[in-house]
Amino acid sequence: MPHATVEAPVVRADGVGVALGGQHILTGVDLSVASGEVLALLGANGSGKSTLVRALLGVVPTSTGTVQLFGAPLGPSAPWSRIGYVPQRLPAAAGVPSTALEVVTSGLLHGRTLRLPHGARRRALDALAEVDLADRVHQRVQDMSGGQQQRVLIARALVRRPDLLVLDEPTSGIDIPTQATFVDTVARLRESGTTIVVILHELGPFAPLIDRAVVLRHGRVVHDGAPPRPRGDHADSFHDHTHAHPDPEPPPTGPTLSVEVGP
Amino acid sequence: MTWDQVVEMLTSPLMQRALLAAVLVGAAAPVVGTFLVQRRMALMGDGIGHVALTGVALGWLVGSWANLVPQDALAVPGAVVAAVVGSIVIELVRERGRTSGDLALALMFYGGIAGGVLLIKVAGGSNANLISYLFGSISTVSTTDLWWTAGLAAVVLGVGLGLRTALFAVSHDEEFARASGLPVRMLSMLVATIAALTVTIAMRVVGLLLVSALMIVPVAIAQLYARSFGRTMAAASVTGVAVSVVGLVLTYYQDIPPGATIVVLAVLVYGVAAALRPVLRRPQPVRDPHPDMVDDVLLADDDVDEVCVETPDPAAPGR
Ligand SMILES: Nc1ncnc2c1ncn2[C@@H]1O[C@H](COP(=O)(O)OP(=O)(O)OP(=O)(O)O)[C@@H](O)[C@H]1O
Ligand SMILES: [Mg+2]
Predict the structure, then answer these.
(1) H, E, C per residue of A196-239
(2) Which of A63, B99, B249, B269 lies 20 to 30 A from B4 at CA?
(3) What whole-number distance in Å separates Cα of residue B124 and Cα of residue B27?
(4) Pocket of ligand 1 (CB under 6 A)
């Protein structure tokens, strides 16, 4: 990557280990994501993908190693306004209803910005329109379908116009047309130079956008390089729906690996 | 109730102070309660209330040693300290998420209330004093009490409303808040602290054993109808003021305990609101719950033309 020499990598993890509940979930993970790169994080259920991105964003503490975001160590000094995170799912419904607008508006707070900036409402409405939820801004998120909730979460991450977007399985449980709109969104962000880390089980419609893939197995990185070919060939059938690209990325060089695809 | 009676009630300084305290507490308690319900900690206020009794008793004990007049001058400051310490311990236990923490909390709560009862007696307090802390004594609110109430209510409302979005963010999705670099711990402690302050000011109105009700029941009522977090909070606050004032006015005419009256009133309102919900709730905006989307699957009897990319000839007859 030519960028890497000029500017600090957007994400840099050195020897990251995470222990939760007395178990080592991740061991010795090194990862560097350059500016503008689109990285897919692959691996079987329980291989530690979500835990890795949580550790990178400071949600879970690391037991060993260091993490830097945009060259700054994790903590109050990290440039949180430049980072957007889409978790795997919405937390279990709490007792108090909250609307899509309220949830997305909360995405405007970060770091030590504890009060809303001017024009917050406008920006939240725009972000919801971007994910096709303009007509549901006042609906309770608890009453929404899983796919609609996922879109709310994406809008909440996009509302601060991040330079680094981290998505945890944005397309699981999502119908194919909605997946296509997510792919379009990612393509547009990639075009504008946003760095993207996306957890996937299969590259599927994202394949043409992925620059690099990292595969985790039992909490260790077992592949870092060109996107691996999926196990089986069913992923190919998704392409024609959404993208003009006739073929997935060129076949992987380096170690031949296949991705374990979830059920 | 005649006009004269109303004027008489409103000109009584005792009633004026009581009404002011009721309005302040009725408005502030549900604001905190909304965050607690959202964090699934609806019973936290109850726990803090138990612990606060020991604080009251310690304040009393120190007061009697120092020969202060009145003897319980330090009761409210004692309650503030004990409640804040207790709430922070509760928050720390919650953060750890340990099951053994559950037992630790139980020990703290029961130790708090039993220790409080014991110490008040040691300090020379009577059963009546004890009852007034446990179940409220709004009719005896002094000017000093009122100042404490006003000051603490201002802090609670200032923090709860001023940092509303940040506290919402932390309470709604802690993981996302951490991934946004928000000071999650500080904000959680802040919620715990304003809950503790609310307990100490609500102590006068409804008593330590019922404070939690004034924080939570108005929220339960509001969320039957409100569709958003903001409106739930606003409606709960209005409900809190309404039941507190109405309850207090009732006790002016009838010899019934104010704290219990307010809480029973709130629970009755909840019952009525819940029963009338199907009738009163504004109808959902008319909207197809199944928005028009291209389907994932082709059904055997689907008109294949609709899905295929084939461009139908607009001039073709019958189309
Ligand atoms: N808080 C926790 N305490 C204990 N173990 C945990 C915790 N969080 C995750 N784990 C364990 O860590 C392992 C990795 O979990 P993680 O959620 O990172 O997997 P994943 O790769 O994202 O899987 P999936 O594809 O199902 O989302 C799992 O075995 C899980 O049980
Ligand atoms: Mg996961």
Answers:
(1) EEEECCCCHHHHHHCCEEEEEECCEEEEEECCCEECCCHHHHHH
(2) B269
(3) 34
(4) A 20-21, 23, 25, 43, 45-51, 88
Question: Given CB atoms, is A95 within the 8 Å cutoff of chain B?
Answer: yes
Q: Which domains does chain A have, with CATH numbers?
A: 11-88+163-258 (3.40.50.300)
Which stretch of DSSP H or E encloses residue A30? Answer: strand A23-33
**Is the model more confident about A247 or about B256?**
B256
**Interchain CB contact of A103 with B (< 8 Å):** yes
B13-280: what CATH class? Answer: mainly alpha
Report ipTM (2 d.p.). Answer: 0.84
Residue with tokens 């998120």: A141
What are the tokens at B234? 């606003």
Least confident of A23-27, B93-97, B297-301: B297-301
Position B293 scores a pLDDT of 57
Write down the pLDDT at residue A232. 55
* In chain B, where the domains are located: 13-280
Q: Which residues of chain A have pLDDT under 70?
A: 1-6, 93, 230-263
Interstrand relation of A164-168 and A195-199 (parallel, antiparallel or unpaired): parallel
DSSP of B167-228: HHHHHH-HHHHHHTT--HHHHHHHHHHHHHHHHHHHHHHH-TTTHHHHHHHHHHHHHHH--S
Most ligand 1 atoms within 8 A of CB, residue of A42, A50, A167 to mutate: A50
Give, in degrees to the nearest 5, the angle at Cα B192 between B189 and B197: 125
d(CA A67, CA A50): 16
- Residue A189 identity: L
Q: Is the pLDDT of residue B281 over 80?
A: no
Cα distances from A41 to residues A153, A166, B277, in angstroms, run 19, 10, 47
Total residue count of chain B as it appears in this document: 319
Distance CA B207, CA B199 (A): 9
List Cβ neighbours of A58 (8 Å cut-off, separation of 6 or more): A67, A74, A75, A78, B178, B179, B181
For A191-234, how does the pLDDT look when each residue is reduced to its tens digit (9 = 90+)? 999 999 999 988 888 999 999 999 999 999 999 998 877 665 44
d(CA B222, CA B270): 9
CB contact under 8 A, A83 and B223: no
Give the integer Cα–Cα distance in Å for B197 and A29: 45
Nearest CA of chain B to the CA of A253: how many Å? 34
Contact B208, B53 (CB under 8 A): yes
Burial of A212 per CB tally in 10 Å (0-12, 13-18, 19+): middle
Kindly tell me if the per-residue pLDDT of B308 is higher than 50: no
B296 touching A (Cβ < 8 Å): yes
> What gap in Å lies between CA B257 and CA B136, rounded to an integer?
8
